[in-house]
Design brief:
Helices cover 38% and strands 15% of the residues. The chain has 376 residues and is an alpha/beta fold. Bound molecules: pyridoxal-5'-phosphate.
């Protein structure tokens, strides 16, 4: 039988408890497994313990991919994949406007390993194609992007990858598999920071990579040496969280949509970035490739000082990260982009008054009331 996504969230990959017939996957904490009379050797850093494999299977099914690996963080997932497919002399093309940790990683590590890269002029497929060279081995995009929520045409990027014989990869963290399944649009490798929506409760750090069996076999070979595997207890928390992923995302999508509409008509707000608003530049592509518009948005305050606004909030907490049950806001100039100069921030569109918003599971009315009183 073929199941739909809400059913897969609850059931995919569950380990059947043959002995006690419990409903949940048992947690296998062992780091030592017997080896006599079996073909494989099992060890946590080989990414082949029962809980690792069952959660990897669950997320792979959510992304309509053949295989997956779960890592100890999103960055462990990203760095392992990049070092799997990029070697000395190779070149990669990255979309403009990436998660801060990813751009920092490229800037600090690639050169000393002899890997070159180009940040495309924009997220437009034509700009991405223009950056391709004969040694390009990977195209990497992120959509919707952080913190400006730019939307990349995934089918367009996949077509460019296929035309030039180059692997394509997407950071699907902001969308979650509930809203967007890039592999079905032709993207080769899908990555998640499971610290965000997959984990969903602001209490675990994890990452995931999904793709074809062939691609994941190569990633697995590299991952043994980089060693970014996840422990059984956290794997179990991740499995437990994913069971409610679909219902959480439905509430999160509708909360973000209502807040975006509220902010868009508020006199103190100069601009709202949310792919679900019909006036947003990403709206048409988002309608094509997303089933929901997600829980992330950002907005620019017209005159108000962003620090004063954040201090006035009573329910919504200014905090790092995103994707939890609690609605939070963050100011990119004070957090993720604090190391950029004023010119660099101008260049990337990160203004002093920009606020990033991660919708949680609270009541829509309470969230809007809190924003309204803080906007004053
Ligand atoms: C948080 C995040 C990452 C990095 O994940 P960690 O789990 O913090 O290592 C990568 N991409 C995006 C879009 C993120 O939000």
């Amino acid at each position: 039988m073929k199941f739909e996504l809400p059913t897969l969230c609850v059931h995919a990959g569950t380990i059947k408890d043959e002995k006690f017939r419990g409903i949940n996957s048992p947690i296998y904490t062992s780091t030592s497994y017997e080896y006599i009379d079996r073909d494989d050797t099992v060890y946590p850093r080989y990414f082949n313990t029962p809980n690792e494999q069952s959660v990897a299977q669950r997320i792979a099914e959510l992304e309509s991919c053949e295989a997956g690996l779960v890592f100890s963080s999103g960055m462990a997932a990203i760095s392992t994949v990049l070092f799997t497919f990029l070697s000395k002399g190779d070149h990669a093309v990255f979309q403009k406007g990436l998660y801060g940790g990813t751009s920092h990683f490229l800037a600090s590590e690639f050169e000393r390993f002899g890997i070159s890269y180009t940040i495309a002029a924009s997220q437009e497929p034509a700009d991405i194609e223009a950056a391709i060279r004969k040694e390009t081995r990977l195209i990497y995009v992120e959509t919707p992007s952080n913190p400006l929520l730019r939307v990349t045409d995934l089918a367009g990027v996949a077509a460019i990858g296929k035309k030039h014989g180059i692997l394509t990869m997407v950071d699907n963290t902001f969308a979650s598999p509930v809203n967007q399944q890039p592999h079905t649009l032709g993207i080769d490798i899908v990555m998640h920071s499971a610290t965000k929506y997959l984990g969903g409760h602001s209490d675990i750090c994890a990452g995931a990579v999904l793709g074809t069996r062939e691609v994941m076999k190569k990633v697995h070979a590299t991952s043994l040496g980089f060693g970014g595997s996840l422990n059984a207890i956290t794997l179990y928390l991740l499995e437990r969280s994913i069971k409610t992923l679909d219902v959480r995302m439905q509430r999160i999508n509708s909360n973000a949509g209502a807040v975006a509409a509220f902010l868009a008509q508020h006199p103190s707000v100069a601009r709202v970035n949310y792919p679900g608003l019909p006036e947003d530049p990403g709206y048409a592509i988002a309608c094509r490739q997303m089933r929901g518009f997600g829980g992330m948005l950002s907005f620019e305050l017209r005159d108000a000082d962003s620090l004063t606004f954040q201090k006035k909030l009573k329910l919504i907490r200014p905090s790092m990260s995103l994707g939890g049950s609690e609605t939070i806001v963050s100011s990119p100039v004070l957090t993720s982009h604090r190391h950029l100069s004023k010119e660099e921030r101008q260049e990337t569109g990160i203004t002093d008054g920009l606020i990033r918003f991660s919708a949680g599971l609270e009541s829509q009315a309470d969230l809007i009331d809190d924003l309204d009183q803080a906007l004053g």
